[in-house]
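Researcher: I'd like a structural prediction for the single chain below. Treat it as a standalone chain; there are no partners to consider.
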Amino acid sequence: MAEYSPPGKDKGAGKKRNNKSGKVADFRYKRSSQPNPKRGNSASPQGSSVPEKISKKNGQNSKGKPGPRQAYAALDLGTNNCRLLIARPSGENFTVIDAFSRVVKLGENLATTGKLSEAAMERTLGALKVCSDKLRRRNVHLARSVATEACRRASNGAAFIERVREETGIVLDIISAEEEARLAVLGCHILLEHGDSPAIIFDIGGGSTELVLLEQGGETVPRILDWLSVPWGVVSLTDTVHRTGSSDEERLARYTEMRRVVLESLQPFAQRVSEAAKADDIRLLGTSGTVTTLASLHLELPHYDRKAVDGLIVPSKAMRDISERLSHMSRGERGDLPCIGQDRSELVVAGCAILESILDIWPAEKLGVADRGIREGILRSLMAIPGVPDTGRSKHEGKRA
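Model: Treating it as a single chain, here is the predicted structure.
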C-alpha cells in the first residue's frame, strides 16, 4: 500500500494547543470613505463612515429616534467554498436577509504544492469582492470572517490574508481546527436528536474533517468531551490519492485506498471513543456538502432543496449504499445525477470515503443531516455579545437562505 504523509500533520488531534484563535469578533465593518450624498453622511477621520450606534435597551439612536435594525454577518472561507450569511436577530434566533456561496477551489493542488496558486487566489478574491459589496449594502453592524484549512496549511496563506484585506477590506481570521470544530457544533447542534447517550457531530470540509464527541445535558450547548481534526477533506483527499485508471476495478481500488488513508488518521480518536461507541443509542450528525448531497440522492430530489434536507434523519445503511454506488461510477455518470453536477462529481467520492470511515468508528444506525454549521455558529456568537439589541421575541428562526 502507498504511504501518505497527511498535509499539515502537526495539526494535533484532541490535544490542547497554544494556537487556539484568541480573536474576538468585535470589529466594525468599514465602509467606503466617500460619503453618501443622499444621506449627507460625512466621512470619519479614519476615512470610513461610522454607523449610528443603537441603544442596548430599545434600539433607538443617539437622538432618541428608532434606529435601523442591525445586521450581522458571518463569512466562511474554506478550501473549496466561499460562503456568506447576513442576518438580523429575531428573539433567541435570527432571520437571514442575504446569503452568498461560490465554489472557489482555493485549495486546488495545495496538497501537492504546499501553497495557494495564483489562479485559485484570483477566483477567491472575485468571490470576496462580491461579499464585500453585500456587507456594505446591508449596513452590517458586526461581522466575523474566518479562513480555515487551506489558509492554515498554505505557505503563502498569511500573505493571501493580507492581500484580501488590501483589495476587499475584509479582515480574515485564520482560525484553529479546534475553533472550527467549536463553531460547527454551535451552528448545528440544535438538530441533534435528544438522548442520554454520547453523540458525534462531524464536518467534512474541503481540506480537513472535524469530529466532536458531545454529551448532552441541561446546558444550551452540549459539552464537548473530545474532538479530532484530520487534514483530509474532499479536496485534499482527492488531490492526494490520485486516479490510476478508469475501469471499475481501478475506481474501486482508489476508493479503497481513500478509506484506508482516512481510517488510519482516525485511529487515535477511534480508540478514545471506542467505549462510548458501544452504547445502544449513539447518535450522529453531519454538516457538510457531502452529507447534504447524499441526503438529496436518498430523497431522489430533482434539484437541491434545503428545506427538505436540513434536519433530515437518514438510515446510515442508505448512505453507505449510495456511497458505494457513487464509488463505482465514472465522473461523467456522477455529474449527470441530480444534486451533484460537474463541480461536485470528482470531489463527492472522497466525501463518501470519509463518511464511511466515520461510520466505521461510530456505527450509529441513523445519520442526522445539517445544512448549517460554521457561519450559523459565528452568527450565534456575534449575537450573544453583550449589547446586541433585542429585536423581537419570535419563537422561530424565520426564513433561512
